[in-house]
Amino acid sequence: MSRKNQPIVHVFRRLDALILTVIICVAFGLRLYKINTPLADYHSWRQVDTAAVARNFVKEGIDLAHPRYDDLSSIETGKENPQGYRFVEFPVYNAIFALLDKAFPWLSLEIWGRLTTAFFSLIIIGVLYYLCLKESNRLTAIAAALTYAVFPFYVFFSRVILPETPALAFSLLSIFFLYKGFEDKTKSFLNELEILLSALFFALGILTKPTTIFYGFTLVTIFYYRDRLTLVKSWRFYVYFLIALSPFLLWRNYIKAYPEGVPANNWLIGQVNTYQGLQNIFFRPAFFRWIFFERIGQNILGVYMVFYVILGTIAKVKRFILQSLLISALLYLFIFQGGNVQHEYYQTLILPAIAVAIGLGVNLTFEHAKIFINPIVLACVTIAIGGLSLFFSYYKVKDFYNYPAELPQIAKIVKLLTKSEDKIITDRMGDTTLLYLTERKGSPALYRDLEEFRKEGYKYFVTLNAQTIADTKQKKLYKIIFENNQFALFAL
Predict the structure, then answer these.
(1) Do residues 20 and 148 make contact, with C-beta atoms less than 8 angstroms apart?
(2) Helix (H) or strand (E) holding 461
(3) Which residues are CB-contacts of 292 (< 8 A; sequence separation ≥ 6)?
(4) Residue ranges of the chain with per-residue pLDDT less than 70
(5) pTM assigned to the model
(6) Could you give the strand order of the β-sheet that contains 458-463, starting from the edge strand earlier in sequence?
(7) What does the mean pLDDT of the chain come to?
């Protein structure tokens, strides 16, 4: 490179750093919205289980080999769980914000959990910008990063207390370091270190959320562009995935010793829980309607951005790396159909791929700007489509932030009238939100007779159901400690 051209390169590098910094600042600001609300918002039942593991780390010390939460019942696993074991994913994420809470206790554990998720989402934005810039151009990078930064579905699930976003960040960091490690053909020590870091981050991603293993397709794609047809003979390829997968396999083998802490998960493939019980949805029309029309089309994309996703899916780029993210996302959707239909947060794992598709689609329209009326008109229409999509997505997502105002109030009363070591029962049909808010361990459902619970050391029964209150009072077996028009607290 000549001396004359060097300043131009540095200007462009500084420009990308400036653009990305602005996008990240906007993204972080949006993720602070309602950061301090009680942990009773959308999908609170899943969030509080994650937060409870961290809270027990704070109270009892961090023991990664024995994560515990507040649910002592057999509802999740079919086996009584008196120790409250929670073997869903390796508790890396929980430990991180537990440590933050111990180090900086002037913020609540819930705020630290949300901030931790938000921080990991900023890493995702940075990696997407870099990959799109290298594999396409700056416009693709800006559009993809902005999508992840500002669209309402992205924002909400980038500040919930769930392990999906941290796991995604680990997986995308693995893609970033492998990509960086293979950029230089010299095979220096730094390149080998980057490849090792990639394997370690992918191992963390799979441990934190096993379904991120689907992003292994993108990693294989990067390996292919490095080694081509000699890939099957490359020792690096096999050692890489041995390093990445071994911790997860060891963890899964370890938790077999604690069946009471491992929830049933066979339904994730093709079943959903309805008022009629488990129903098969595998490749049924309902699956396509819920995922591609309701969730992706309306909630995530706000209808109009679907146009750019379709264009981005078929856009031609110099290599297949960006499109491999889309393949990874589709494989995940089609294999875990039950989980994706049952819960919106399962779609968190496909959000990077959708953002990349939007970036490629927006770029494709501007690459062919001559076929449109005018480039300025095209820019205005693109901004209008983005704005309308954002508005309609927000209309669907805004209620996710709401929570039942009575739950925190009920929790305060229960905390005042009971001791921290008291085990309680709530008739919340398995929803552990009230257990978490009361900071008490116990059962989130009345799945046995109250007398059986009493014999096992349970002290109180909390119910919000008027009929249950009337029936329990009529039996005259248990003393009413507190009652108002919202709930009743019975001593067992």
Answers:
(1) no
(2) strand 458-463
(3) none
(4) 1-12, 185-187
(5) 0.93
(6) 442-443, 423-426, 458-463, 488-491, 479-483
(7) 92
